[in-house]
Design goal:
208 residues; alpha/beta; 4-stranded mixed beta sheet; 8 helices
């Protein structure tokens, strides 16, 4: 019942297992986009799948692209409004998509030679899962997230130290106009980044 995001660092982006996993995610996202277009149309918010796909520029399609298509069609004023009124979780036209378990995602990242890191646990209320996910191969925790408070960071640093986890950070920037933090926000210093890279090298992970 929670959204758990797992980040993969230093992965071999050509790993066959990873490519199969990513294709399954893209397929699920496309199916959801198609269903979103259908249910929105039934509700009087008419856009086409081509409108949505054009905004993904050939990449993996998501709800943000649906939101942008709604804005371009003049049906909502902003992408934030599209989520808040129509397609966000719990809203009238929300469509869920099948997702992989955190354990299978961690296994895929490890299979591709990478480090698996739990993203923004204080934002997604997943801190209580860290101990369990470590037994599944989790190697790090995103401490310096743009939406983490000082107390969040201190608490997560203590958890990382207790479990000997790598520490990462990020802005979670999703593009202009998405109502999120600016690119580069989060507070991850050069020294912390260097320590993270050194940690990967010490584990024999260099990426590709």
């Amino acid at each position: 019942g929670r959204s758990v995001h797992i980040l993969g660092y230093f992965i071999d982006h050509q790993d066959p297992g990873l490519l199969v996993h990513l294709q399954s995610l893209r397929d699920a996202r496309l199916a959801r986009a198609r269903e979103l277009v259908r249910v929105l149309g039934e509700g009087g918010f008419t856009i086409s799948l081509d409108d949505v796909l054009a905004r993904s520029a050939g990449g993996s399609v998501g709800r943000a692209h649906v939101a942008r298509a709604l804005v371009e069609a003049g049906l909502v004023p902003t992408t934030r409004a599209a989520f808040d009124r129509l397609i966000g979780r719990g809203k009238p036209y929300y469509v869920a998509k099948p997702v992989a378990s955190p354990e299978s995602v961690i296994a895929t990242i490890r299979g591709a030679g990478g480090l698996a890191v739990l993203a923004h646990p204080s934002v997604s209320s997943s801190e209580d899962l860290i101990d369990l996910l470590v037994t599944q191969g989790l190697a790090g925790v995103e401490v310096y997230h743009a939406q983490h408070t000082l107390s969040d960071r201190q608490r997560l640093l203590a958890i990382a130290k207790r479990l000997d986890l790598a520490v990462t950070g990020g802005s979670d920037f999703h593009g202009p106009g998405e109502g999120r933090a600016r690119l580069g926000d989060g507070g991850m210093t050069d020294a912390l980044l260097a320590a993270f890279v050194d940690r990967a090298h010490a584990l024999g992970i260099s990426g590709s």
